[in-house]
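Hi F.,

I've been meaning to write this up properly since the lab meeting, where we talked about keeping a consistent format for the predictions we share between groups. The idea is simple: the sequence comes first, exactly as it goes in, then the structure tokens exactly as they come out, then a line or two of notes. No screenshots and no reformatting. I'm using this chain as the first example so we have something concrete to point to.
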Amino acid sequence: MSSFDRIAGYKKEKEELRALVDIFKNRKKYELKGATLPRGIIFYGPAGTGKTLFSEVLAEECSIKKVNISISDSASENNICRRIRKAFLQGSKGKTPTMIFFDELDKVLPNESEKYYSDRSKSILAQLLTLIDGMEKADNIVFVATCNDYYDLPESITRAGRFDKKICLNLPDCQTRVAILDKYAKASPTRFEMTTESIAKLTGGFSPAALKTLVNECILVSDENNFVPEGVIRAKIIEIKEEDIPTERSEQSYTIDAVRNIGAFVVARSYSGSDYVLTVEEDKVSNGFLDAIIENADYDYDDEDYDEDDCEDDESNASAVFSVCSKNDLLAAMTALFGGYAAEELIFNKIYDNVKVSLDAADDIAFKLAKCGMLGLELYYNDYREYKYSERYREKLDDAFFKLKMECYEKAKSIVLKNEALIRKLVPVLIKRKSIEKAECEELIVELGGLVCA
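Output, unedited:
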């Protein structure tokens, strides 16, 4: 059994982790190419999303020793610095590949907004930077950390050369919630009256840890026949929503996600008046039709985890979406995805890692256009027959994709610029509300000055 089986869902994030494992397991191959191995890796995202689990899988798959830097909230500055030095010294001894692991790094470092630049936090930061920079002399060490509030970390530690690889673990989307619920529910003989798909639709905002708790709570109250009725499941969902949904995200983190989602929403809304809920919690363009296109654009029937019986509904949904989809619909979806990128560029004058999911989804749409022949037969591409295509053909396709994405980005940028005032006014409202239903949002848009369409 692979260590990767411990992680349910999070398909794209697992692919990133697999790529890291390959680099560390085949380091000589990459060194011969002239590449430098990552010295620092950080897993970040809301509490309970599996950041520590990802670090464990990395260590297990690469068969490397793991040295933990264990920090208590009451530890003194000297005590923390001593433990950090001890961990790096222990890791540098001998030639055994070693992971130095620091959990919840953001709890002891000063933050970017300088809300608590205490002498204690500055001393710990200085100690850590000195030791990380000294890792160049010990090529058997990799520094791995987790944090909730990545955007509050000082830039001196997040810059390239210290953390070369950053993997964001957001709260799971619906598909990932199904996979997580399946993992825990199928490990028990207990029968649930509701399907995991139905439960997943009711648990938006739940972390993997909260989903595990939900399944366990239901099992504990199952009847003598190991059965959990729908009423009990719904009651437990409400109970956990009221008590256990993570609330540790910083205001800055919410602001960054709000800007991205509102930017995407403004562009999507200018193309389509489909039903929607404007949300800050998930990667959405907040448009029912375009979100369905985006969600199904990467649908892969050749996926190693694909199960024909379990995925029958997904297959029919994907077919339904694309049976009524035109090239313009797909381009509108791609343009909406770039709306979040353009909005961050405009509001912050820089781009954050939270746009990665959107950029990946834009790539998926570009491939879907090629697979459906919508770019013309001269650019038709079926990746299941990848070995049959020449390097020149692939370069031609890459050039076409790049041109297409730049055109969509420029359209998105134009719409975002026209609606800058609306975006700035909507951000604080969405941060406070977390989600806004369509009817109320439409009234709010009018009240704030209206939307300038494409």
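Notes:
Strands lie at 40-44, 65-69, 98-102, 141-147, 165-168, 191-192, 227-228, 277-279, 435-437.
Residues 3-168 form a domain with the Rossmann fold fold (CATH 3.40.50.300).

If this format works for you, I'll send the rest the same way.

G.
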